[in-house]
Specification:
about 280 residues, alpha/beta, Elongation Factor Tu (Ef-tu), domain 3, Rossmann fold, six-stranded antiparallel beta sheet, 7 helices, globular
């Protein structure tokens, strides 16, 4: 059977910017839709938490962006920080501007395999971007999961991502814990690294029948992994995403090869048990 262009994730498709909004300094969210309605319909039915796209900015180049929306939301957007030529150019886009994308790519988080389990989400800084999709998905399917605990930390209150989402998550559906490394005037919440939340009075981190999602800067990741292992988590029950320069999306160019794995096709989602076999310094 012939594959239609809408079904082919490897073909670039034209997307149109709907709106942009500031998240924190140097970080913006770009809302968009695919120009072809059939492409849009196919995309919304295909992508899942933890997947990514390859985005082309005409005249600048192609780069990788994770997908922070959940398929339960029926909308798509990217959240990105200014770090290079493409991301700088993308943040200067206006509603109506066009770009191209390929995807969605990657294995993503196998959410259905986590049904019936307790969930622990630990995010640091902009590490919340790839984990946002899992949180929204879990809360939209709350009856399919047991207890849900969310631990989120940032450098200071001004760098807390997704302010409106945080307000929603604080209201219910999960145990929500927030911290910053250093407080600003008027801040009355917890101060300390995100792992310190595990030891707060009244906090009991679930371990049995539990999957932990972890994403954040390398130093935070190392300490949180140690904390989770000390609590009794199995390495196979700690899951994260691995960021690499991904150029082709099909495991051919070799840019994202780590050990014997290609992050674009074998990942970007790996268990900690798998990460340890890749030869990474984690």
């Amino acid at each position: 059977m012939n594959q239609s262009p809408a079904d082919n994730i490897y073909l670039p498709k034209v997307a149109i910017v709907d709106a942009l909004n500031d998240e924190i300094p140097e970080v913006k969210t770009v809302h968009w839709h695919l120009e072809n309605p059939e492409d849009q319909k196919q995309f919304l039915s295909t992508f899942g938490p933890g997947m990514f796209c390859l985005v082309t900015i005409p005249g600048k180049g192609e780069f990788t962006l994770s997908l922070p929306p959940s398929p339960t939301e029926g909308k798509v957007f990217f959240t990105l920080r200014r770090v290079g030529v493409c991301s700088n150019a993308f943040q200067e886009y206006k509603p109506g501007d066009r770009f191209a994308l390929r995807g969605p790519f990657g294995n993503g988080f196998p959410m259905e395999s986590y049904y019936g389990k307790n969930i622990v989400v630990v995010a640091g800084g902009i590490g919340l971007i790839p984990l946002r999709s899992t949180i929204v998905y879990i809360l939209a399917n709350r009856d399919k999961f047991k207890s849900v605990q969310i631990f989120y930390g940032a450098k200071n209150p001004e760098t807390l991502m997704y302010a409106e989402d945080l307000k929603v998550w604080e209201k219910g559906g999960a145990e929500f814990y927030l911290t910053v490394d250093s407080a600003s005037p008027g801040y009355t919440g917890n101060v300390g690294v995100v792992g310190s939340l595990f030891k707060k009075p009244g906090v009991t981190v679930n371990v049995d029948n539990t999957v932990a999602f972890v994403c954040g800067p390398p130093i935070m990741f190392r300490f949180v992994i140690k904390d989770l292992l000390d609590l009794g988590f199995k390495e196979s029950n700690i899951v994260s995403t691995l960021e690499r320069y991904m150029k082709c999306g099909v495991g051919k160019c070799g840019h994202c090869c780590v050990g014997v794995s290609y992050v674009c096709v074998d990942g970007p989602v790996f268990t900690y048990e798998q990460l340890k076999t890749l030869g990474e310094d984690i």
